[in-house]
Specification:
This protein has 232 residues and is α+β, with helices and mostly antiparallel strands. 39% of the residues lie in helices and 20% in strands. The radius of gyration is 19 Å and the shape is elongated.
Length: 232
């Protein structure tokens, strides 16, 4: 039923340790639905009742917060395999952020609430029950990991100096390297949104840091640390 999407879904941390056949059965049990979005489409609007979590099958989506003045701050970005909106789905609460497709994206929406239903799988099917247990364990770990990331985010935004925000971002990025579900920043506009700063101010500070030999800015804005002591 899910075809090539099943590989992307099984690559999500939510289904880590679950065999593809069992994952397909659980997707049916969670009434999974696949939706496509063009760049800048909203997958979740502010105030939407969130009853399903999203798994990114392709593309990149970003959770964004709008302040009273309309300024946008990126809370978190998710690439292929990334799981988002799971906390709001579990709590069945209105969304406090908007989720936007950064580029053309496809998302599988799953009803996590069904995992708590003891009749969601055959009571005699041990393999199915083991799969449900594994997914719930994975979800717990993901929620804990997101909590750590959001704590890091709060620490970063609490810094008054822009250079300190950049430094903490680079430290956090280094710790997340290799985690495919965390979408990388590809340009300075996206980084400015993530750090909640003006793009021109960010560009000036990155230029100063490059002149001082701390970093090197490549391509459209990828930052390479040239002085490891800067992160220490």
């Amino acid at each position: 039923m899910y075809g090539e999407d099943l590989d992307a879904i099984c690559g999500c941390e939510l289904f880590a340790g679950v065999a593809p056949a069992e994952a397909a059965r659980l997707l049916d049990a969670m009434d999974a639905r696949v939706e496509s979005y063009e760049a800048n489409d909203l997958a979740i609007r502010l105030g939407d009742e969130v009853r399903r979590a999203g798994i990114v099958l392709a593309g990149v989506v970003a959770g964004e917060f709008l302040d009273d003045a309309g300024k946008v701050t990126t809370v978190m970005r998710f690439g292929t395999g990334g799981l988002f909106a799971e906390a709001m789905a579990v709590l069945d609460m209105p969304s406090m952020v908007e989720v936007r497709a950064v580029q053309a994206s496809r998302v599988a929406w799953v009803d996590l609430g069904r995992l708590s239903d003891p009749t969601v799988v055959d009571p005699q099917d041990r393999a199915a029950h083991a799969a449900v247990h594994q997914v719930i364990l994975n979800l717990t770990r993901l929620l804990a990991h997101k909590n750590v990331l959001l704590t890091d985010k709060a620490q970063t935004l609490s810094q008054r100096r822009l250079r300190d925000r950049i430094r903490l971002y680079l430290i956090s990025r280094a710790s997340m390297e290799g985690q495919g579900s965390v979408a990388p920043i590809t340009n300075q506009s996206e980084l400015a949104r993530l750090l909640a700063v003006d793009r021109s101010a960010l560009s000036r500070e990155l230029g100063r840091m490059q002149d001082e030999g701390l970093i090197r800015v490549e391509g459209r804005g990828d930052i390479v640390v040239t002085d490891p002591g800067f992160l220490g």
